[in-house]
Amino acid sequence: MSENQKQNNEAQQPEEGEINLLELLIVLVKNKKMILGVTFAAALLAVGFTLQKPNIYTATAKIIPPQQSQSSASALLSQLGGGALGGMAGMAGITNSNGLYIAMLKSRNITEQIASRFDLQTVYGTKTLPGTLKALEEVSVFAVGKDGVMTMEVDDKDPKLAADIANAYIEELSKLMQTFALTEAAQRRQYFESQIKPAKDKLTDAEITLDRTPNTSLKYMDAVRNLKYQEAIYEMMAKQFEMAKLDESKDAPFIRVLEKATVPEKKSKPNRSKSVILAALLAFFLAVILAFAREAMQRAKEQPEQAERLQKLRRAFRWRG
Fold this sequence. Notes:
alpha+beta
């Protein structure tokens, strides 16, 4: 190849690149009506679809879950260490685990109360109670932030109902926690009450044994140690019983409402403009792909080699089908 031919080829390369770009633009211009039509039609369909969907309002309530400290009885039990009495320390109050509070909010105890309170079976148009509870679960969201604040969000077509349900969650959670707190305190009080009589009987037996044992014998020292031990056990049980009664009389831990749910003024969904834009963009790209596919098919028919390949491709699809 001569030097002049090389120079001519090099000079033609950018021109070929320009022609390819121009060909792409030509394809788009040739199919502009189809591309714009598909895009516009998709946008109209998206508008019609989103207009049929009702406005949804989200009501938000924020609380600070109670961080209950150990009861006085449980604190002393913890100092005793292992054993059956030390194990009682695990019964102290309601745990401050946020996961537990979320589980309580989702429990049937609370959801059934809310469903009955607002007649949600009629509101949601469900046929059964389980269906109503599932619908309520789908519109209720609970989350706990790093700051420890629990957020309750409820969606509904009625903004007032959404706010009322969100606030009802707070009320029902408070009631359930009070029930649990009283039950736990009563259990501890009953446990120590049942242990006092056996401890007192053992103390009486130890006193009788000491009185009957001569103070000159070795058994006398054992009897003295046993008496002191039984006295310590009885005094500890008596103190724990009094503390358990005191804990039972205390109020249950209360929920601090940081932000009560108010009636939302603006809808949270659907985001109609976003839906229309996404539908239009998707339709536009699909229409562009279709335009280039049509152009490729047309050129393949005009070229014998490409037409033969196209026929093979069609036969392959038919065979697989």
